[in-house]
Amino acid sequence: MNNKMLKMAFAGLVLTVSGFANSAPIVDEFGDINNLNVGGIYYDVSWNFELEPVAADFPLFWNDEAFALLFMGAVQVAFTESGFAIEQQFYGVDYDSLTGVILRDDATGFELLNAVGHLSWADFREAGWGTVTPSEIPEPSTLAIFALGLMGLASRRFKKQS
User: Over the stretch 45-77, which tens digit does the pLDDT of each residue have?
Assistant: First the structure.
């Protein structure tokens, strides 16, 4: 009986710890983000500072201003919580005919600018356009549940053999 309780406690601990393992996005020194949680879906974001954007670069945000704002708000939180900052950089995504949401990084912190068209971007230097893809990495809790299932099948097989 005690062995079963110990196994159950261990399984609960593994699931609890694994739930926290993927809770924060990872921001690298260039501002690229892995596992950005937006509305329960995880995204990877990289910033392109070399090419001029076109509307087809942003199908995830087409005609969805609210999602673009939510997304860039999550980017702002990830940057702020990670301590990432390069003054006078601009990061953005578009939602309608090259009109988008921009996150400005300056000496006072990050500021979200909405409905900014690219024609006015001449005032913004070194703008980065977000390339956004859904993360393909399963959450740790999913992996933990799968591992526990395999351990259960293995232990059952060994019990039958003894």
Answer: 888 877 666 666 778 888 888 898 899 899 989
Distance between CA 37 and CA 24 in Å, rounded? Answer: 8
Cβ neighbors of 70 (< 8 A, separation 6 or more) are 38, 39
**Residues, the chain, total?**
162
pTM (whole model) above 0.70:
no
Q: Is the dihedral of CA 23, 43, 64, 119 positive or negative?
A: positive
Secondary structure (3-state) at 108: coil
For the chain, the domains span 27-135
Cβ atoms of 55 and 61 within 8 Å: the answer is no
Residue with tokens 């939180």: 77
